[in-house]
Fold this sequence. Notes:
- By secondary structure, the protein is of the alpha/beta class.
- The protein has a single domain, classed as Alpha-Beta Barrel (TIM Barrel).
- Helix content is 40%, strand content 21%.
- It is built from 6 helices and 7 strands, in the order αβαβαβαβββαβα.
- The longest helix has 14 residues.
- The model has no long low-confidence stretch (mean pLDDT 92).
Amino acid sequence: MARCLADAGVxxxxxxxxxxxxxxxxxxxxxxxxxxxxxxxxxxxxxxDLMTPSEMRPVFAEAARLGAQALLVNCIPARxxxxxxxxxxxxxxxWGAYAxxxxxxxxxxxxxxxxxxxxxxxxxxTEFVRSWIEQGALIVGGCCGTGPEHVRSLxxxx
Length: 158
């Protein structure tokens, strides 16, 4: 997949949403073999219970050693991100997070927190992101359940 993307002309690869260290590092090595800048992101899953921050930390260290250019955590609840940020710190690379807004739904796979029902949802997400930036995150964004309203709100953080 990394080679196909490189051949298609992308300028950056993002190895993301891996809850398994071995698979994540293999994907990173394949992405780096293309010669393109590569960012690396782990997940603890939609309930933040597939990996712990202490399990992630050595994986991030290995990703940095291999040549990743940024380290991230993604696809976890926004409320859980602060617990995972210490695993990213001290690796000598830019780091950050992009979390979920909404929750897993067994019937449809994902239930969005409707902005039509809750016009302040994007602003509340932005407050979570603000706390990540205060902890040192340089790269932030949104994952499952986020949309244009969230991105517009995040852009106002500048």
